[in-house]
Amino acid sequence: MGADAEKCVHCGRCTASCLFLEKYGLDLAGLAKRPELAYSCFLCGKCAAVCPKGIDGAAIAQAMRRDQAGDGKDLRRDGDYRLLLWEKAPYKFANYRRASGRPVLFPGCNFPSFFPRTMARLESVMAVHGVGVAYDCCEKPVHELGLAEDAAMHIRRMEEKLRARGVEELVMVCPNCWRFLDGRMGIPMVTIYEKLRQLGEGGTVKRDAFPLYYPCPDRAEKRFFTDIRPFLEGEVTDAFARVQCCGLGGCASAREPELARRMTTGAAETAADGGLYTYCASCVSSFRRKGLERAWHLLPLILGVDEAVPLGMKPLFNRMRRAL
Q1: What is the mean pLDDT of residues 196-208?
Q2: Could you tell me the fold of the domain covering 88-197+312-322?
Q3: Is 26 helix (H, G, I), strand (E, B) or coil?
Q4: Rounded to two decimals, what is the model's pTM?
């Protein structure tokens, strides 16, 4: 990745678009020389989107993280990541007991955590059509911390479990899981929104306007959102293009809590009275924690479920219940 950084023409566009680079007075060439800052990068991809040479700062930071993990950095003893790795490497609350049938729902970790009532409704709707459910972590957080081999091993085991149960299609709820497992998982994937349309389920959400916050993994191509659009009646606006991240990207908030707070409050200030719509449970939870009450996930609205996002320890308990 250092070779990519050597293409840098020092135009400053990446620095101007990224609170992290701005804080440390770096461009992408400078980032490549600061491995001690690898875990401060939010991996949001904003720099690559504006770089005239296509340099990807997230890839630079992740390469440095992998190098550090390979050199013996014990993240399991790091107070910032110990609990995360205890839970997700491998995922403690995995449950494949109902993962049977050709298509199987894969909700990921955070959607069941923050939207348990919607998850119950979704399970019920899918069961009518013979769609099972598998609870597991896609391993994206583990991979992003630099433990790529660990993540790859868990993904292989996940695929073996699914294939042993005859699964031929994964129905993806989370855009992060969908983007991360695309190319890493051999089982074909569809979004939950495409599957709902195929099954004739879900209702139209009507608003005068939808100020959309596009999650980082779908920001460039908006492929996930393409499947959502038929459910929305009203003007869709890219109202948060200047907001870098929800504050949770790359597990960097542990190292840069003030930058994470600024990202979240920036979204709240942009939302003002119009609120915010998105389709990532992690994003909604981050915004709600920082007091942005008018932040909605589109899937509960499409399924007709009115649900408040739980805070504190409740999301962890919600994940634990899925293993029962």
Answers
A1: 97
A2: Rossmann fold (3.40.50)
A3: coil
A4: 0.94
